[in-house]
Amino acid sequence: MTLLQTEQLTKQFGGLTAVDEVDMEIEQGEGVSLIGPNGAGKSTLINLVTRRLEPSYGDVSFKGESIVGMDPHEVVQQGMSKSFQTASVFPELSVKENATIAALAAEHGSFRVNFFRHRNSYPAVEELTNDVLRSVGLYGERETQADSLDYGNKRRLELGIALAAEPDMLLMDEPTAGMSPDETQSTVELIKRVKDELDLTFLLVEHDMEIVFDISDRIVVLNRGSVISTGTPEEVQNDPAVQEAYLGGVEE
Ligand SMILES: Nc1ncnc2c1ncn2[C@@H]1O[C@H](COP(=O)(O)OP(=O)(O)O)[C@@H](O)[C@H]1O
Ligand SMILES: [Mg+2]
């Protein structure tokens, strides 16, 4: 089943076409990385898909239905989460409270609705948040206040918050940016583990090719807003168009 599909998706900023008629499909269960030189349009494409940006033209469908016109939070309720956003963490709440809020918000879209919630559904939320905290390795820290977590654990919490919404698809834009090699390694292991455990579909933007080749079922290469190649890591690595796009950038 196709989870995400873009058709002729385009974003212009004044005279600049940042995303240029992109046709892309992501199947359920696929781990896809989006790569390309700096300024290729990767973040813009992610922001179009998550509805942080309005397309100039073209369409985005999720689970077969157009999401253009929806608000970002509606897209989250449809099952699309973006992770590694510090903004989603409530620093004064505990790890567990943060995960619980994310689980409830994704289910109902707002907190006030929960007053009408049937009591019996709370144990399910409790179980879900505990499972998520175990998946990201934070169960032992569940009572810890979020802002006293160390850097690595904060990133785990950000991923946990996204997973607590039980997304069908997870988007990540440079999750390892600013991390030490050790933190990067543990984040990559974490993403791989949750992908296997939860059969998670993801779209990852990452500049570290070692990570990309290690983690992806398929790679989509953007250059100047256009898809110039797509395939398995091996296919993309051997594609002359990709080598040219990257070497061209280095030699300039
Ligand atoms: N809000 C914006 N307004 C104007 N230009 C933008 C805006 N966002 C991105 N751009 C431009 O669009 C192009 C693609 O940017 P971006 O999507 O951030 O690339 P990437 O994430 O691949 O590095 C760049 O030339 C960038 O300067
Ligand atoms: Mg970017």
TrEMBL record:
A Pfam entry, by short name: BCA_ABC_TP_C
Keyword Ligase: no
Transport among keywords: yes
One GO BP: amino acid transport
Signal peptide: none
Listed InterPro entries: AAA+_ATPase (IPR003593), ABC_AA/LPS_Transport (IPR051120), ABC_transporter-like_ATP-bd (IPR003439), BCA_ABC_TP_C (IPR032823), P-loop_NTPase (IPR027417)
Annotated ABC transporter domain residues: 4-249
GO molecular function: ATP binding
Gene3D superfamilies documented for this protein: P-loop containing nucleotide triphosphate hydrolases
Alphabetized UniProt keyword annotations: Amino-acid transport, ATP-binding, Nucleotide-binding, Transport
Functional note: Probable component of a branched-chain amino-acid transport system.
Family (UniProt): Belongs to the ABC transporter superfamily.
Annotated protein name in UniProt: Probable branched-chain amino acid transport ATP-binding protein LivG
